[in-house]
Write a structure and sequence with these properties.
This protein is of the alpha/beta class. The protein contains 11 helices and 20 strands. The chain has 2 domains: 212 residues, Alanine racemase (TIM Barrel, Alpha-Beta Barrel); 99 residues, Lyase, Ornithine Decarboxylase, Chain A, domain 1, CATH 2.40.37. 29% of the residues lie in helices and 25% in strands. Strands 1, 10, 11, 14, 15, 16, 17, 18, 19 and 20 form a 10-stranded mixed β-sheet that branches. Strands 8-7-6-5-4-3-2-9 form an 8-stranded parallel β-sheet. Strand 5, helix 6 and strand 6 form a beta-alpha-beta unit.
Length: 368
């Protein structure tokens, strides 16, 4: 019997992909499955949807190699920049690299020429994210220099939104910058097979950001980027996080729970302990704020969440017994705790909530 585990509904992921496909029309899809597909299991998710997408996107070379070992042959873009010394691994594994420095372009060109290969690259432009990427006003000269290097194939041009879910005005300015740049490049005879800007939030909010390739990530998992965003695509949550009751006790008025004694009972309470904690990815900020489902009812998390355990107030649960299933994310009977709700509770983003779930400590069960 598993003590704490993750369940992943692959059918829900396929459904979400179909809904996104309907939304974007003829545009192609780069499925962003970085961070182990937000803890849903990148290799299994990729194999489940590989016939339905044109690209995969990951954060690191290591993530990309794991997909190759798992039999994924589709194009894989490393969305984060790589170091020049990693050029060998990019070429060897037939990966597409994000390029925004001449030193990396030269390293890829040199390695590709040495191995008699062609290195595929996507040029990243910073239209407002303020992270990696070439400044728009420097992009044309940069691209001309990169294009002059041998054994490089300029596969894509892209940028990224920081506030596609909350600031439409700023996002529209980014779209204009990107469109203007592509027009100037075309005027100089420079074109790319793929142009991409739309992340999950933009797919929902900004139809004019699609270009010819979009990058759904968290929405593939059935999770909206925030509770406030317009749900223009119907999604089904794919992940559930579950545990079991391993201990039950009664505490009297004034009794305290966990480190720091941050919880003091105002009257007699039934306390249930679950074998899951912050080492499994349950955020400690949910201490005295979060909830767990027991017998289809919400039970408050009480006291500080520990590394390996947490406690809940189970006073309203009748006939509670050791071994009963508890739901931290997902549905139980008519009640549901969503990832978006948890993120809102502790003032973070849904992506953080799921990507932190430990694949080493939490076994996954797949269905659908």
């Amino acid at each position: 019997m598993k003590r704490s585990w993750i369940e992943v509904n692959l059918g829900a992921i396929k459904y979400n992909l179909e809904q996104i496909r309907k939304k974007i029309g003829k545009n192609k899809i780069l499925a962003c499955i970085k961070a182990d597909s937000y803890s849903h299991g990148a290799t299994i998710v990729a194999n489940a949807i590989k016939k339905k997408v044109e690209f995969f996107g990951v954060a690191t070379i290591k993530e990309a190699i794991e997909l190759r070992v798992a039999g994924i042959k589709k194009p894989i873009l490393i969305l984060g920049t790589v170091l020049p010394e990693e050029a060998f691994a990019v070429i060897k594994n037939n990966l597409s690299a994000t390029v925004c420095t001449i030193s990396l372009a030269k390293a890829l060109s040199k390695e590709a020429k040495k191995r008699k290969k062609i290195a595929k690259i996507h040029i990243k432009v910073d239209t407002g994210m303020g992270r990696i990427g070439i400044k728009p006003e420097e992009a044309i000269e940069f691209i001309k220099k990169v294009k002059a290097s041998s054994n490089l194939f300029l596969e894509g041009l892209f940028s990224h939104f920081p506030v596609a879910d909350t600031d439409i005005s700023f996002s529209q300015k980014q779209i204009k910058i990107f469109k203007d740049l592509t027009a100037k490049l075309k005027g100089r005879g420079i074109e790319f097979p793929f142009y991409h800007l739309a992340n999950s939030a933009a797919i929902l909010n900004l139809k004019n950001s699609y270009f010819n390739l979009v990058r759904p990530g968290i929405t593939l998992c059935g999770i909206y980027p925030s509770l406030k965003i317009k749900k223009t695509v119907k999604l089904k949550p794919a992940l559930s996080l579950k545990s079991r009751v391993v201990f039950i006790k009664e505490i009297g008025k004034g009794g305290s729970v966990s480190y720091g004694r941050t919880y003091r009972a105002k009257k007699r309470r039934t306390v249930a302990t679950l074998p899951i904690g912050y080492a499994d990815g349950v955020d400690r900020k949910l201490s005295n704020k979060g909830a767990v489902l027991l017998s289809g009812k919400r039970c408050a998390i009480i006291g500080a969440i520990c590394m390996d355990q947490l406690m809940v107030d189970a006073s309203d649960i009748k006939n509670l017994k050791i071994g009963d299933e508890a739901v931290l994310i997902g549905r139980q009977k008519e009640e549901r705790i969503s990832v978006e709700e948890i993120a809102e509770t502790i003032n973070t983003v849904p992506q953080e909530i799921v990507s932190r779930l430990s694949s080493k400590r939490l076994p996954r069960i797949y269905y659908g």
